[in-house]
Amino acid sequence: MKVIKFGGSSISTTERVENVIRLIDEANKDDSIAVVFSAFGGVTDQLIRLSEMCSVGDEAYTEELQELEERIFRFAKTLIRAKNQSSVFAHLKSTLNELEDVLHGLTLIQELTARTLDFIMSFGERMSTFIICEAMKDRGMDAEFADAREMIKTDETFGAARVNFELTNRKIREYFESRTALQVITGFIGGTPKDETATLGRSGSDYTASIFGAALDADEVEIWTDVNGIMTADPRKVPDAFPLDHVTYEEAMEMSHFGAKVVHPSSMQPAFEKNIPIRIRNTFRPDFDGTVISADAKETQHRISGVSSIEDIALLRVQGSGMMGVTGISARLFSALARADINIILITQASSEHTICFAVTPSDAHRAKDVIEDEFSLEMQVNQIDRVVVEKDLSIIAAVGENMRHTPGIAGSLFRILGKHDVNVVAIAQGSSELNISAVISKEDETTALNAIHSTFFESLRRKINVILVGTGLIGGTLLRQIRDHRHPLGDAWKFDIRVTGLANSRKMLFDPNGIPLENWQDTLEQSSQASDIDILFENSRKYNLTNCIYVDCTASEQVAQTYPKFIEHRIPVVAANKKAASGTLEYYHRLKQLSHTLDTPFLYETNAGASLPIIQTIEQLRDTGDSILKIEAILSGTLSYIFNIFDGETPFSEIVRHAKEKGYTEPDPRDDLDGMDVARKLLILARESGYELEMDELVIEDFLPNESFEVDGIDEFFEALEDADSAMTERVKTAQQSGKVLRYIASLDGNSAKIGLQEVAQDHPFYTIGGGDNIVAFTTERYNETPLVVKGPGAGAEVTAAGVFADIVRVAKLQKQ
Prior knowledge:
Blueprint: E1 2-6, H1 14-30, E2 33-37, H2 43-55, H3 61-79, H4 85-109, H5 114-138, E3 143-146, H6 165-177, E4 182-186, E5 189-191, E6 197-199, H7 204-215, E7 220-225, E8 246-248, H8 249-257, H9 265-273, E9 278-282, E10 291-294, E11 306-319, H10 329-339, E12 346-349, E13 355-360, H11 362-375, H12 377-381, E14 389-400, H13 410-420, E15 425-430, E16 436-442, H14 446-457, E17 463-470, H15 474-494, E18 496-504, E19 509-511, H16 521-527, H17 534-543, E20 549-553, H18 558-561, H19 564-569, E21 574-576, H20 586-598, E22 603-604, H21 615-624, E23 629-635, H22 638-646, H23 653-662, H24 671-674, H25 677-689, E24 700-701, H26 715-723, H27 726-738, E25 742-750, E26 753-761, E27 774-781, E28 789-794, H28 798-816
Parallel strand pairs: 1-2, 1-7, 2-4, 3-4, 7-9, 8-10, 17-18, 17-20, 20-21, 21-22, 24-26
Antiparallel strand pairs: 5-6, 9-10, 11-13, 11-14, 12-13, 14-16, 15-16, 18-19, 23-25, 23-27, 25-26, 27-28
Helix pairs in contact: 2-3, 2-4, 2-5, 3-4, 3-5, 4-5, 6-7, 7-9, 10-11, 13-14, 15-28, 22-23, 23-26
């Protein structure tokens, strides 16, 4: 047998009721069932509102009552055929007249007791259940209305009545023994020893279903609601939350206590005691199996079952030297709070016994403070106990799961991920059952913490890597294509999904927390009405709680380079193709490196010195293993490497440069390559990475072209001026050739001496045979002293540079894995 319950959201419209009746008809063909109903969606709130209006003599209640009456009759008229309506209407009219009489009496006495409110609220379930039962009969189903007040017997604690289970179980069994029709039962209500109406408290209809299921030894209790089951987190706060196939009673109770609204702990208790499974199902997705709650834990790949939260709490701290080693302090504290009817949500105590912290609802905070200070007034007068400290605007987050028991590393992962997302933990509590780890944090960090924890513990389902890219030129555009083409193979290999959630150029920007489609990003960006603003991109990354976020700079902008600290300070890694930060002032370079180290937040810029060549990584690995960089010789410009490989004196130098520009090997303005500043920035970065404290003005840049070539206004004028240098350049290359040498534009570092210039190299030099636009770096170190360590390969071009940026993004993604 099954006991099935449908909540208010499942029957809030006539269309939904029709759907529910179809579900019941199908279920009744396969199993013996009983059905429990809540009030129609919104009716209970309307009844409470009517009660409050009448209790203050608000005559406008008659309009509210009329609206309720019209809605009730609209359900009956729509769901039941005309020929069967008369007796139904008569019953409903009688019921509504009874409600009207009670409300009228309430306007006269203007005193709303819990007993009266319970009676008024009962009309919701009584009317909805009656109408649905009659609608089922109208469709030929063998159904019978069952008033739960006749069977569920309670005490007189109105508002949250306690059930007399011995009497209730006997009455339910006796009632069902003499019935063969499908029983359609009112949820939420019971009857007192005086046959007065009492409600069962929060989630009362779920409780009703559990009570009947336990009394009838049902095979299963089904709770039909508007979600697919118990979720791994609140989907309104964690978009990646998903339904669980199975949880234990204990897990469900823990998750419910900490904010999961699907099922309330008290409603599970009767079924729990009889070891009857409870299944949570979605009325609007009947094909979905939902979540089963049972006593037995099932094997799962996840270390936790879910993460929940209590959004708004206050933390009270009681401390003082007079508490240490004194027996009875805790007993007095919590007894005083219990007498004041103040519920404690969480407790934590320092092992020194110097401090006790506990959490309450904000509405109870100041009353709790007064109660404690009254209880310990004498101790406070002699400074044995300090004044109670109240902290507000806090939340509790809790990781819950059977797999947490005896599993090392859960707490470490939890608090490490909170630290990585800049979430400060105010207090911590863990029960001896190891089923729950709770942390008190700032309320403003709640959603960030939930998303970060969820992403960490459910990472096997593919972590989402959120890229914010600034700069959509040649490098940035190529990077977007590479991400589009390779994200799925990477995802299969590393179980992460790289999405571009923010995109900006110098004029416009896009932001989509679900990811920007990369198939037509150019058109989408061009059509955007949002002006480019990195501050807004940053704020959106925080607003939408983007976990595993990476800030990528593919510009050459000094202004963009100055934004890095803001991201790193909030533990958002930075990947930069832009050289302006690492080659800026030494102070700024050290600031970024220190921030990155202190906050354990990557700042990667491998492409700053050689596109995708592992040059900076090589220096890092050498120094990390105790080696010292003594000398560096390098060709660091793919453009100049290409030009001097082609230039043999037969074709004028200006024509070689023009040809290189036409093929896209140079910057739009070739002077940016030929003035040596790009190479100087790269050498400065390598020097700093090698441990040398250099500023840009300490580098010597030897010009190989006359200054006049760079002082003209436009690019066409530049090429005209460059022609004047052709003869001198031809003479220089011929002179080198006569000595069996070639020209190479070389950057060199020897100790604190750094210089860049055009040099002649002989055949025995490692740079002699370099071809095309390759870069090459030779490291002389303490270990590689006799023969330098050489890194060589393509050092320029959109494809390899974008690939280097992509590689840094993947490095960060791997580092973010917990």
